[in-house]
Amino acid sequence: MATVIGPLHVRRSILIQAPAGRVWQEFTAQERVRSWLDLGHTLHRFETHVGGLVEFSVEIDNERRFFGGRVLVFEPEQELTLESQWQPPHDWPVPTFWTFRLSALYDGTLVELFHHGFERLGADAADSLASYEWGWDLKHLQALRANAQAGQ
Predict the structure, then answer these.
(1) pTM
(2) Which of 28, 99, 103, 117 could be bridged to 81 by S-S, CB 3.0 to 4.6 A?
């Protein structure tokens, strides 16, 4: 069952000329995930199962800040959803979420990245959403596409 994406979300997408099974291989081990998701921040831990931990860090204003959470959905060839929560003192009242969705399209796979759940932040939702709209670009999905297409 697909994760419900709330009304306040960032969405980025890319079409990959490879079947979903090949694209999903890039989600199956920490080193594979690191090769495309570890751009602009550092991936420290990625456990590829429901309940597994995901840990990142990023440098902001000359300070290393850590974030991550648990894997909530790990449906091969369909969806990966994980929590995204900053560690104190920068934590939010509740986590937001990252969802990667794979869907067949033409002769390839549409990969959609959603950063969602901002409506859960109450009064801070608008500013948080706006900053992530600026922050998310396509470099991660472009690297995923290059890996998946090269590995066919």
Answers:
(1) 0.95
(2) 99
